[in-house]
Specification:
This is Cytochrome P450. The chain has 480 residues and is of the alpha+beta class. It has a single domain, classed as Cytochrome p450 (Orthogonal Bundle), CATH 1.10.630. Helices cover 53% and strands 11% of the residues. A four-stranded mixed beta sheet has the order 1-2-9-6. It has a three-stranded antiparallel beta sheet with strand order 3-13-10. The longest helix has 32 residues. It binds protoporphyrin IX containing FE.
Length: 480
């Protein structure tokens, strides 16, 4: 009997699989499929995080902006670098469903703005959009100052060193910044490097990354039997309990001191309403943790990449420093948002770094309604990978893409060809915040140090959620 049930179930699964593949193969139009192996299809393209970016770049250069890849039999993804299709997919509120990859983050960030389903997302995003208004950004810029001062003191210990990885320093600084601006607390992760909370954030992020590239850990059922499952559960529990404590304390402060300053994102969320109802504690935790997740590693990596590039291009570094001296003078004045806006060359150098080394190399969307667009037809149920790294390295959009040249951004670039912060309605809500944070950190670092190259260091790009150098973001510092 049991055997018969198993056979029936297996037959149903195989039939479902065959029908799905048949539907995709007959309906999908406008995509090229590179030759793959009979058994493993294009699995080898995705098998190593170290080769993923070069593999996908080679494929999109050889086969164009719309490519169909079978990660394995039955798991088809569409690799897209065609700006018109990207505009069609990202530019509409109808296609905002994230694909299964984001589920890996859900234990930590629950159903916050990054991961939630379209219906909830529309309401949440509407409520969140005003939190980065001009006045609020001004407050945030002043809150960056103290953590950046600590960063400079920490970096001073590295002057004269033959070369060191700058990213861990930057990550602790951006963690302090995001905790102060989002939670309203001084975490002091830079001074107290052994804090349980920062260790837990590090642990959870590392486990998400490990799951990305391990079929055993990626599957929710088999993941349960691994050591990482317990470790992640414990770390997430502590992170969420800690956040709950911060929320309780903040509420109490509001009740006892009606005039207490509302400067953090949490303060704003405590007063926000969705469907005329205040947010529950669970929703508040999901939301603030989503901002921590999205706004910590991304900014640190962006600063690290600019420093790395400037170490290799002393002429560009000199121009950036000359501009900062002309806007801020030489007496170490802390920048205002207006000063930051005046630093056009610095902005171009940051943008060109974000093109050259795309911080978030991929975005993905689940297609939950058939798409018909020109000669393209995409049946629902497929995942689209928008390969931002490949888009930014496309010679059609950026001639001579391997050349680092900030002046590309002297004039406006064509829409949907440059998207380090994503695009359309579900783009990065923190991009203005992020840009200001990156500028403030770079200004203070460049005022204090000349960034020198570690000769012979060739970066090994690794595909993580954000771009990484497997062999470290190595630079040298010399006092200025
Ligand atoms: C500075 C470097 C940053 C980069 C390169 C970056 C990049 C991105 C990208 C590409 C997306 C779109 C993801 C997708 O469509 O799947 C995104 C979304 C998001 N980012 Fe950023 N980000 C940065 C900084 C920040 C900061 C500082 C914050 C918070 C303060 C933040 C908060 C968010 C949030 C909440 C979303 C989700 C928006 C939504 O789904 O509606 N980001 N970011």
């Amino acid at each position: 009997m049991l055997f018969a049930i198993v056979v029936v179930l297996l037959t149903i699964l195989i039939l479902q699989f065959v029908v799905k593949q048949y539907r995709i193969n007959t309906q999908l139009k406008g995509f090229v499929s590179p030759p793959g192996s009979l058994l493993l299809r294009h699995f080898n393209v995705f098998s190593s995080e170290n080769d993923l970016i070069p593999n996908l770049l080679e494929i999109s250069r050889k086969y164009g902006g719309r490519v169909k890849l079978d990660v394995f039999h039955g798991t088809t993804v569409l690799l897209v670098t065609d700006k018109d299709l990207i505009c069609h997919v990202l530019g509409t509120k109808q296609i905002v469903l994230k694909d299964a990859f984001y589920d890996l983050c859900k234990k930590w960030i629950g159903q916050g703005v990054i991961t939630c389903k379209p219906e909830k997302w529309t309401k949440t995003r509407k409520m969140l959009n005003p939190v980065f208004n001009v006045q609020q950004l001004q407050t945030y810029v002043t809150l960056f100052e103290n953590p950046i001062k600590i960063l400079i003191e920490k970096l001073k210990c590295e002057t004269g060193n033959d070369g060191f990885d700058v990213l861990p320093y930057l990550s602790l600084c951006t963690l302090d910044i995001i905790c102060e601006t989002v939670l309203g607390i001084k975490l002091n992760a830079q001074k107290n490097t052994d804090l349980q909370y920062s260790r837990d954030i590090h642990t959870v992020t590392s486990i998400i990354l490990r799951r990305l590239f391990s079929p055993l850990k990626r599957n929710d059922v088999t993941f349960r039997f691994t050591e990482d499952y317990q470790i992640e559960a414990e770390a997430v529990r502590r992170i969420r309990n800690f956040t709950q404590q911060v929320i309780d304390e903040r509420r109490l402060k509001k009740e006892t001191d009606a005039k207490s300053k509302k400067s953090s994102l949490l303060d704003i969320l405590l007063e926000a309403k969705i469907d005329d109802k205040p947010m529950t504690d669970e929703e508040l935790i999901d939301e603030v943790q989503s901002f921590l997740f999205a706004g910590h590693d991304t900014s640190a990596t962006s600063v690290g990449l600019v420093l790395y590039i400037l170490s290799k291009h002393q002429d560009i570094q000199d121009k950036v420093v000359k501009e900062l001296e002309s806007v801020l003078g030489t007496d170490n004045k802390y920048p205002t948002p207006t000063d930051l806006n005046e630093m056009k060359y610095l902005e171009m150098a940051i943008k060109e770094t974000m093109r050259y080394y795309t911080v978030a190399p991929f975005l993905s969307r689940m297609i939950d309604e058939d798409i018909s667009f020109g000669d393209i037809f995409i049946p629902k149920g497929l995942s689209i990978i928008v390969f931002l790294y490949g888009l930014h390295m496309n010679p059609e959009y950026f001639p001579n893409p391997e050349k680092f040249d900030p002046t590309r951004f002297e004039k406006e670039v064509t829409p949907y060809t440059f998207m380090p912060f994503g695009g359309g309605p579900r783009n990065c809500i923190g991009q203005r915040f992020g840009m200001m944070e990156i500028k403030c950190m770079l200004i203070e670092i460049l005022r204090n140090f000349r960034i020198l190259e570690v000769s012979g260091h060739i970066p090994q790009l690794t595909a993580m959620i954000v771009l990484r150098f497997k062999n470290g973001m190595m630079i040298k510092l010399e006092p200025r």
